[in-house]
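User: Structure please.
Assistant: Input sequence and predicted structure:
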Amino acid sequence: MNNWLPSLNALRAFEAVSRHLSYRDAAQELHVTSAAVKQLVRKLEESLGTPLVRRRGRGLILTNAGVVGLSDLNSAFKQIATAVEKIRLMEQRRSLTITVEPFFATAWLVQRLGAFKSRNPEVDVLIDSSMRIVDLEREAADIGIRYGMKPSKEHIVHRLFDDETLAVCSPSLAEGPPALRRLSDLAGVTLLQMDPTDAGWMSLASRHWFDWRTWLATVGAGEIKTGSSLRFNDYNLAVQAAIAGQGVVLGSWPIVRDAIEANLLVSPFVERARTDIGYDLVVTTEAMAKPDVAGFVEWILEEVASQAT
């Protein structure tokens, strides 16, 4: 097949003439002169080596050569028009990219995004849920929600939640037998914990708060004996295993609060460890100047405030 194509402007002029069967009407559609349309059609005929349009009385008719490709040509220009309109509409859409750790996205953010979308239906939201720390200055993210990280001084930071860790499990596991009432009862159950050799699941600054030995020592129970363990490198899986009754997991209070209120998890012990870290919303000054970014920040701070009441 010969892949050579004549001028797109010439093809467009001929396609318009073929629909109107009038140089004048085609010229009005294309916002050019009739002479310009005639010249474009003539150049197309010369390049193809065959006449496409002929005079008949005061009007125009198409030759057999002009008719044979007309249907495909009409469809092609309709497809081009559709593609251009899609591009135009896409440029008009507003978008917001939020980078957030998977455990916060799954347990807290995603289930509340419907409220933001109801308030801002014209904004497309992309959730980038990965453990990779995105550089807000250089990468395509408008807002970061980070846990246990120290943002640079160039960032605007809003503390969403201070954190504390507590032991949680399913209601059936807590009821037993054996029932879980004191930390010493941990000797009879499986401890669900994060793999300390996997550096990807959480930052170094926060990882030790989810280590059972460290947590027990922090709450003054470092001497007790514990049972077997089941390790994970995905915090969401560890929490889901706890909900399924597979063992006891150390929960981040903002992450497990909804599950506790839904009676999917319970905290059988009174002990909690107050951490020195929390969940922060981080945004650059440049991004904060965008109305949609400022609107999201306002919305999420309202959500956090409503949960605190």
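The first helix runs from residue 8 to 20.
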